[in-house]
Amino acid sequence: MVHLCPPARPGPEWARELQDRIRDFGYSSHGNHNSMSLLRTAELYGSQDASLVEFPATNQPPFRNDADRKYKELVRQLPSQACIDILVQTFFSGINWQYDLLDEESFRERLEAWGMISYSDLQTSFGRLALETLVFPVLLFQVLAHALLFHPPHDKMINSLMTMAGMTFHDLGAEYSDTGAELLALLGKKNIKIAMVQAGLLRASFLKSSGKVVEAWHTLGTTIRDAQEIGLHTGRIISEQSPVEPKRERHNVSLVAHKTWVVLHIWDVHMAVVLGRPIATDFQIDRFSHTIEDDERRRELFSHWQTEIDLPRPFDIILAGYNVAYRYFKDIHQIEQNGTNSQDYPTVERIHATIKNNIQSLPSWCRLGNPDTKFDQLHGCQWLPVAREGLSSLIHLVLLALHRPFIFSVANSRTEAVKAGISILHAQERLFQQSEPHQRKVFNPVYASFDAIVLIAALCLVFPNEDHERRTECINVVERGIQRLDIIGQSNSMAKAAHGVVCSLYLRLRRRLGISETEDARAFFSNSKWISPNIDTDYSNRELSEFSFDAVLPPRPTHDLFFDHISSTQIPLMDPSDGLPLDPLTVDVTDNWNFEGTFSDASFWGVMNELNH
């Protein structure tokens, strides 16, 4: 034990050393209700001696020798500066707007600083490099990985990075993302920087885009803990506030921190509802926004989305979605945890009415119907048409999730779920049409489409005599959604699995309604006087007499796909006669198409299997 005697007036260096020691014990450096905070108070203000365990001097290298060597090996996997510049441009022109996590000017300044580090600096002066410099490659690898998901194919400069025959940009992106994750783990948790949090969120995004949803959820949880460690949830990043930093730089860090925590929270509650996982964050936007004490700066960040005249920014789309609908994800999560409780239905109706009213208050440039497109072609706003469709898709996904627990017990929820599902699939189709073929390989377009297709097909199957006026549109959007999943599934295994599931549901729907493989389902449904036929009498009567869907849990497609491993048997990948992808309209509907997975017999999927025999 070593006694440390602080000076009569502790300076900033001594204060930072004490902060380091508090963190080493595992205590929060910004909490006020733990034992170490009392010691800190005594040291700083009571001029008392305290006995603390000795820690390494703060100017020592942060890594052991073997970690030093590993770090150097990993950062040498970065491509040439020319390739980096090309991919960074791709990232900021077409990807960063999705979460608006990175400030391009600051990132390029750090990229330039990294480029000035010589080989000898890395070899001989490693321990004297600033931690911000050491952290930068962690973020850079994730930026490069994302860029490779969307970079145009056949770029000769980038193709030079392919080291093996048959290697794709997606393969290289996965390697870069994995390398960035290794670097992040190597840096440890003692001195977390906001760039490490940003890298963690981008890593989760890459995993989700690659169809690794469970891994993405776990990565998100770790990233949330890292963000909380440096105080992002409080609105103040205590560990990175330094009086010697330029005022502009401190302001930028504050804005980035606020945006990062908002995005983390939205990701958290969204995945909790879609995947049926716990919520790890707590967020009240009004209280959080007031951690920015300057009124003008607070309005600049949190109220700019409401303007009609000023140029919209990517974060404005995120805030518009949150204020209109995403803020109710937590309530929806609680309703789902309660099960189909009729006492919760007034809450469902209240939230539904509020969201519909909020939609009407969206500024004209992001209206869900007939938007004002005056900004779309302006410099810096090229992302807006795609972002608007994403906003529409997510807002309607909130409505779909809101009504999902009651679709088998309340007719109004069935109607609203179908309407939300149709809106989702229309938005997803427009997104698909606006994307380039090489951008359709990622799994991102699948999540909302898969949930919507399954819910619409399930409701048409179980309640074939309801919503006659939407029957043709339901079949139309389901068929087109199946076609999109098929295209994405050619290069994405999870999309292929989702495609098999929806094909099976669609085939069951045709069989349920007595539509042969030679008949056009949309023409069949367009007859407004149509009622459910009894062509397959046994099938229909068993459904009506033996199965009550009141006690059946509604399908949660994305959760069921990734956690229950839902799949469908007997779905051929290709039509052997002509080598074309499966067209559900041409398949013999008399075959059995069982669902497989870890679900119970009483689940929706189990009941579907029972009805098939």
From TrEMBL:
InterPro entries annotated for this entry? Sec_Metabolite_Reg, XnlR_reg_dom
Q: Which GO terms describe its biological process?
A: DNA-templated transcription
Q: Entry's SMART domains?
A: Fungal_trans (SM00906)
Domain Xylanolytic transcriptional activator regulatory intervals:
216-295
**Protein name, per record:** Transcriptional regulator family: Fungal Specific TF
GO molecular function annotation: DNA binding; zinc ion binding
- The protein's predominant localisation is nucleus
GO CC terms for this protein?
nucleus
CDD domains assigned: fungal_TF_MHR (cd12148)
Q: Which domain of life is it from?
A: Eukaryota
What PANTHER family does the database record attribute to this sequence?
A: COL-21, UNCHARACTERIZED TRANSCRIPTIONAL REGULATORY PROTEIN
Organism this protein belongs to: Penicillium atrosanguineum
